[in-house]
Amino acid sequence: MASLLQPDRVLYLVHGEKKIRSPLSTLYFCRYCSELRSLECVSHEVDSHYCPSCLENMPSAEAKLKKNRCANCFDCPCCMHTLSTRATNIPAPLPDDPSKTTMKKAYYLACGFCRWTSRDVGMADKSVASGGWQEPDNPHTQRINKLIEYYQQLAQREKLERDRKKLARRRPYMPLAFSEKYGLGTRLQRQRPGAPITSLAGLSLKEGEDQKEINIEPAQALDEVEPLPEDCYTRPINLPEVTSLRQRLLQPDFQPAGASQLHPKHKHLLIKRSLRCRKCEHNLSKPEFNPTSIKFKIQLVAECQVLLTLTNPVENITHVTLVGCEEGDPEDINSTAKVMVPTKELVLAGKDAAADYDELAEPQDFQDDPDVVAFRKSNKIGFFIKVVPQREEDGDVTVSFKIRHDFRNLAAPIRPSEEGDAPTEAIWLTHHVELSLGPIIA
Amino acid sequence: MQSANIAAGAVVCVESEIRGDVTIGPRTVVHPKARIIAEAGPIIIGEGNLIEEQALIINSYPENIMPDTEGVEPKTMTIGINNVFEVGCVSQALKIGDNNVIESKADLGKNVILTSGCIVGACCQVNTCEVIPENTVIYGSNCMRRVQTERPQPQTLQLDFLMKILPNYHHMKKTVKGTSTPVRN
To answer: What ipTM describes this predicted complex?
Structure first.
């Protein structure tokens, strides 16, 4: 099946803001707009946070507080693998009788991949298995917090002034308090492409509260810089001790130059995202809340709705017409060969899961022209096309054509129809398909 | 072909392939399907080593020398004590010290010399011409290196367990003293 093993052979054209050609397995199908959607024409939203190693869910507010890091798991500062806790028995003196020693458990962190241990940086073994490990404090935390507070206040003041100007010009149809409370979540606020980032303002104090005047001291420029050590150029480098750029930048607080100062950091959280069609605002993909579950609550993948290369995924009989691309078709830019598709309409039987087991079922009687149809099996069909390569040189032969098929929207809302129960109407969808047939063999 | 000199106390399974002049020290365990091939010279393996399945320890001729060339002296391959050769590794290094761990599918070339306490990570190919300093860890797809502060512990628990269990399920090769049953702890 081309969709699983060679995904790039058959490309479908998606009409979005940009024309994107991609295989069907990476596309979604919005059944409210009846159009294909690719990852670039949907909006991505954060659904939930979870830790990749302990699979613990974390509510978004807590994640923001902990800077999107897990509380229990650590990353190796050397190779970024997950650290595991190991225990050793060490003799420790009894609190009652200092002369006798008893075996106590001591825990240390170790990496299974690069064999880094917490003892390498001088972190003492802890007596509790989890929760005893602390990240070292950033010496500049206080100054940074003060700066953040000051700028939050400034941002809020500027926002108030801006809103006051807007109020003076025209009456907003949305009250001010409403827009502040919901921030960037509403459609109107999101679709303003030029809007500045007002996330800082969202965190600031509410109107009407006493605002403390926060003054900050400007940073002082120093004339004297600490001189380099004298043997800077002559001292031989201990290469294992030098940290790589990646190791250094993963700890932006300290950026240690020596490997003996690399402390482990808490593990970064991952997110589950949900996809939303930008035109009709319906959800295309919504994952489960539980981090251990890989299923989806809503998953409108194109493979389940749109016809694959002649395998019919839906359960009704589908009629397919193939139309070659005309000369001068603006979407036909990649084809290097002319293709002659069968002009007749092809009929595909519906997908029937029980057909494999039902031996008494009558074979469906479709009259197939043997020149056109090569074989037919349940909901699949094989047909012939003629390809005339246009270019002489060695290259990939790519053909493009349009598939036109009927689609019944099973999820359409039930409209009260006056005629009783009319069957769901079929709409005709046209997709532009590009098929890569492989290189020309001389 | 000379048979292998297996010291008493070593556990060498019959399904392992040992060719050439190979000496195996006591308390060494050689799993089935391990291959120790001494083509271009003898191999001397110390005690307390653990050689797992499909490991290949081969003392082969250098590439541009044919086996029939005269004047080529046989070089001895020496392997120290307490080393671990994990599943599927290939070692052609002529000198290996003590307490090293060669992880699965690692590949050691002919010109490498391992000292003590080194760990060659899984799937790492080391075919440079150098002496690896002590306590070095080679890991990652780019064979990054770092020095660790502790050397890997000798696998005494594992060795004891295997020396009890393996004879229950496999036949053993005969040891030097002529007894066909291995010495049990």
So the answer is: 0.78
